[in-house]
Write a structure and sequence with these properties.
By secondary structure, the chain is an alpha+beta fold. Helix content is 20%, strand content 29%.
């Protein structure tokens, strides 16, 4: 059977079945088109070994296990692959249960990431993604006009560095505008008073995180998921107590 891509009924997400062992040009093109259209691709029971994980991620960018220059943040983490491209994420060390876009506190955040679930709880441990095209497009026109002209700071020193990014970005492939703020890393809007900055950010966070903008994936061991970091946020639900949850991730950069 050939590759099949089925769009989910939510505002983002598609399921990819029959992923071939080797990614040829036609498959890469089909996946790239589906990724641009659906923002998140799910690969149920893909059972990616390290070699296939690296090969699939490499279709979409240059791979790093962590953000370049931030490797020290992961000194207690385990990496795999010939060049350390794969980062292991163990819930005993790290639980990302806050809406966020990955490492937006760097000058050039990643294009996206590809997760492969190795061990997951019998119940709980889902991940949600939110469509930031839709978050921008469903703002009222006066608020859209306001945020179109603003930038925001991302980062939480001394844990991270700080970088400023436009609050609305244009996707280089689709040409669509996306809201680019997130509760995890966006801290203030230069040029506004602290009260104005906090009020506007709180409004945007609540709007961007609305359930109507999201898709939710219930993991099984062997599943994989890949998302576009430029137009989504994500949230790993922390509802599984002490159960084991282990994933491996490659992160793609332009």
């Amino acid at each position: 059977m050939g590759l099949t891509i089925t769009r989910l009924p939510q505002t983002l997400g598609a399921v990819v079945d029959n992923l071939p062992e080797h990614i040829d040009e036609a498959t890469a093109a089909a996946l790239s088109e589906a990724w641009a259209e659906n923002l998140v691709l799910f690969f149920p029971q893909a059972r990616l070994d390290d070699e296939r994980h690296i090969a699939l991620g490499s279709v979409f960018g240059t791979l790093h296990a962590t953000s370049p220059g931030l490797e020290d943040d992961h000194r207690d983490q385990t990496v795999f692959g010939p060049n350390g491209e794969i980062l292991e994420i163990d819930a005993r060390k790290d639980r990302a249960n806050m809406w966020h876009t990955d490492v937006t506190f760097t000058e050039t955040p990643p294009v996206g990431s590809l997760l492969s679930m190795k061990v997951c709880p019998e119940r709980g441990g889902d991940t949600l993604w939110s469509n930031q095209y839709l978050a921008y497009e469903t703002l009222s026109e006066p608020i859209r006009d306001l945020v179109d002209g603003l930038s925001a700071e991302h980062g939480r020193p001394p844990m991270t560095g700080v970088h400023t990014h436009p609050m609305v970005t244009t996707h280089p492939v689709t040409g669509r505008k996306a809201l680019f703020v997130n509760r995890g890393w966006t801290t203030r809007i230069p040029g506004l008073s602290p009260l104005e900055s906090r009020g506007l950010l709180d409004l945007l966070f609540a709007h961007a995180e609305k359930p109507e903008h999201t898709v939710r994936w219930s993991w099984q061991p062997g599943d994989a998921a890949m998302w576009d970091n430029r137009c989504t946020m994500h949230y790993a639900v922390n509802d599984y107590g002490d159960a084991e949850r282990v994933l491996r991730r490659v992160t793609m950069y332009a």
